[in-house]
Prior knowledge:
six-stranded parallel beta sheet, Rossmann fold, binds 5,10-Methenyltetrahydrofolate, single chain, oxidoreductase, alpha/beta, NAD(P)-bd_dom_sf
Amino acid sequence: MSDTTARKIIKVLMISLTLPMKSVYPQLLDGKALAQRIQDQLKAEVERLKSTYGRPPGLAVLMVGDHPASAAYVRNKERACTKVGIASFGQHFPADVSQSEIEQTIDRLNQDPNVDGILLQLPVPAHLNAVYLLHKIDPDKDVDGLHPLNLGRLLRGERGLQSCTPAGVMRLLREYRIDLKGKNAVVVGRSILVGKPIALMLLEADATVTIAHSRTKNLAELTRQADILIAAVGRPNLITADQVKPNAIVIDVGINRVIDAQGKSRLVGDVDFDAVREMSQFITPVPGGVGPMTVTMLLQNTVFSYTRTHS
Length: 311
Ligand SMILES: NC(=O)C1=CN([C@@H]2O[C@H](COP(=O)(O)OP(=O)(O)OC[C@H]3O[C@@H](n4cnc5c(N)ncnc54)[C@H](OP(=O)(O)O)[C@@H]3O)[C@@H](O)[C@H]2O)C=CC1
Ligand SMILES: Nc1nc(=O)c2c([nH]1)NC[C@@H]1CN(c3ccc(C(=O)N[C@@H](CCC(=O)O)C(=O)O)cc3)C=[N+]21
């Protein structure tokens, strides 16, 4: 072999070695791709159920007011329902709707045999009592997992309908075979919708869990200890690279709409993505990470609730 041929071979080998390293490390946890695969499976399952039992699973999403981000989320859910074959019974109320009108709607949907899942989009306007409305939803149709009975089951480690975002995060971690046993997990955010149920699920998976919130002192000191860091706050760039342990697994739940330097509206998470991705082992992008998994878990819960009533 001539000297130049040998040099060429070495060059090609070097390029092929560096390319995959750059593109694979750090790895993106691709929620969008996994969501598509699960939705394809659900579609086949829904077709089978429909031909066996004569009706498709049904989901009712209740939205109050005109919050633009919520409206986009509701549209995404309806699109996904159509794709998978789930019937939508969505209802959109004006911002000044009365508590009793929503309660009556929930009562009617609880009784409706074509409806398997009911979700009340949060937050609701201040004049409504969200907690009471969530209590009114039949626990067997509570596909958002927010009824006290379902949250209680989660606390006890029992099977039941589980909150979609936390369930989606756990499914994503499982897909990438991320070992949680004995790992330090730090959850930033303690809402009933995201922070608390994620912390409980990580605990159930044998992680050592810390929950941080707006009153936490020395947040950076805590987050730097995290092998698994979950950001669920709703503040762009809350988590910067100096707050992250090298090689950590970073899950960005935050969804924030910001105006970029070009004056364009853009969706970002709570993590300074470009800087943090350089030093983490795995990271979820926004968009394309946790969001599509949330929608998919909602569809999965609706199908689960349907199959329970037919078994
Ligand atoms: N990707 C998805 O599928 C979903 C995304 N989201 C997004 O996730 C984010 C969180 O949602 P949600 O839990 O409903 O929001 P909430 O507003 O209910 O909760 C936010 C939490 O963040 C804490 N917090 C606020 N500021 C700080 C701070 N500076 N440092 C540490 N903690 C802080 C609050 O603390 P305290 O309790 O002390 O006030 C609270 O516990 C939002 O961006 C939301 O849009 C929500 C659902 C699904
Ligand atoms: N009872 C209740 N349950 C919820 O689960 C709930 C809620 N209320 N209120 C609002 C938040 C927010 N949320 C999102 C879910 C998916 C996307 C999503 O699909 N995002 C896409 C992009 C969407 C886009 O581009 O518009 C993504 O991240 O890739 C976004 C936001 C659920 N929430």
